[in-house]
């Protein structure tokens, strides 16, 4: 889906992600909550750092055991990496949080070479749950 680059679009992305994961994925409530935080942080980065009027969000399941999604702000830049801001910093914790949550979920994430697209891959629980 394509969303306008404005703060209210982050909530739209969260709601769509919540509905999609509840219908198509077998994630626990805690896993869904973590995924929504990851989505929020990546969409917030797209709104704050993208230089376009819109950004894209896409989710898919390439296999029965994997969930993939991407947030594309269509703005090439140097790929960002998680930082560790000091305790007085008012921002800069988003990618640190993304990294910690994706790791906790057993997945991987990163940016494309040109820095415009963040991609994430998470394992899905099997039928034996």
Automatic annotation (TrEMBL):
Gene3D superfamilies reported for this sequence: Histidine kinase-like ATPase, C-terminal domain
Keywords tagged on the record: Kinase, Serine/threonine-protein kinase, Transferase
Protein name listed in UniProt: Anti-sigma regulatory factor (Ser/Thr protein kinase)
Entries under CDD domains matching the protein: HATPase_RsbW-like
Residues covered by the Histidine kinase/HSP90-like ATPase domain: 4-105
Keyword Ligase assigned: no
Lineage top rank: taxon: Bacteria
Molecular function, one GO term: protein serine/threonine kinase activity
Pfam families, A to Z: HATPase_c_2 (PF13581)
Keyword Transcription regulation carried by entry: no
InterPro entries given in the database record: Anti-sigma-factor_SerPK, HATPase_C_sf, HATPase_dom
């Amino acid at each position: 889906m394509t969303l306008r680059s404005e703060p209210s679009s982050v909530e739209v992305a969260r709601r769509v992600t919540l509905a999609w994961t509840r219908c198509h994925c077998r994630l626990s409530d805690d896993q869904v909550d973590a995924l929504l935080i990851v989505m929020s942080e990546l969409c917030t980065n797209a709104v704050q750092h993208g230089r376009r009027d819109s950004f894209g969000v896409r989710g898919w399941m390439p296999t029965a055991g994997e969930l993939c999604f991407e947030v594309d702000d269509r703005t090439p830049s140097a790929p960002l990496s998680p930082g560790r801001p000091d305790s007085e910093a008012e921002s800069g914790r988003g990618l640190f949080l993304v990294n910690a949550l994706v790791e906790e979920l057993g997945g991987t994430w990163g940016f494309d070479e040109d820095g415009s697209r963040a991609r994430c891959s998470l394992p899905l629980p099997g039928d034996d749950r």
